[in-house]
Structure formats: C-alpha cells, structure tokens
Automatic annotation (TrEMBL):
One of the early assembly proteins it binds 23S rRNA. One of the proteins that surrounds the polypeptide exit tunnel on the outside of the ribosome. Forms the main docking site for trigger factor binding to the ribosome. Part of the 50S ribosomal subunit. Contacts protein L29, and trigger factor when it is bound to the ribosome. One of its GO terms (molecular function) is structural constituent of ribosome. InterPro entries: Nucleotide-bd_a/b_plait_sf, Ribosomal_uL23-like, Ribosomal_uL23/eL15/eS24_sf. Belongs to the universal ribosomal protein uL23 family. It comes from Thiolapillus brandeum. Keywords: Ribonucleoprotein, Ribosomal protein, RNA-binding, rRNA-binding. The keyword RNA-binding applies. This is Large ribosomal subunit protein uL23. One of its GO terms (cellular component) is ribosome. The lineage of its organism: Bacteria, Pseudomonadati, Pseudomonadota, Gammaproteobacteria, Chromatiales.
Length: 98
C-alpha cells in the first residue's frame, strides 16, 4: 500500500455522543472513510497517522437518505464508516492543544 493511498483513506473522525462513549469505555474510535477502503488499509492509515497499534477494524456502509426538494426527488450520497479498536494502553487525542 502506498503512502499516498493511505493518506486518502481516512476522511475524518466522527464525533457523537455514542462514539465518545465507545472511545472512553472500549478504546474504539469512529472515522468516515472512502467507500472503497479495505480493513487492512484503514488499520494501516490509522497506525501511520496517529502512531498507535490497531487491534480490530469494523466497517459499516451507510445508505444515503432520500430527500425531497419541493417537487424534485433527491438522494444523499452513500458513505462508509469504520470503527477502529486500539490495542491495550493506546489512545488518540483529537483535542490536543485545546
């Protein structure tokens, strides 16, 4: 896997109350990833960017919602999220310097 590909796999962290509880209780962090990303690519990208050891990766494909804009029927994009569990003693701090 190339460095360039690994830098494009993660699109950003997903911050919600549910993901914050998972991070505190089970060392699980949630990321929005490209739809064609594989589990080994996601693990390698997280390890490279945050200098941590990944224990497990789970992925979920999220279907885009159907929406109406007046008479026009529209649809939001489908996207993929990854739940990454870190090894014991590892942590990611997104609020560093805040």
């Amino acid at each position: 896997m190339s460095n360039e590909r690994l830098m494009k796999v993660l699109l950003g962290p997903l911050m919600s109350e549910k993901s914050a509880n998972a991070a505190d209780n089970a060392r699980q962090f949630t990321f929005k990833v490209t739809t064609d990303a594989t589990k080994p690519e996601i693990a390698a990208a997280v390890e490279q960017l945050f200098d941590v050891t990944v224990d497990k990766v789970q992925t979920i494909k999220v279907k885009g919602k159907s929406k109406r804009f007046g008479q026009i029927q529209g649809k939001r994009k489908d996207w993929k999220k990854a739940i990454v569990r870190l090894a014991e003693g590892q942590d990611i701090d997104f609020g560093a310097g805040a």
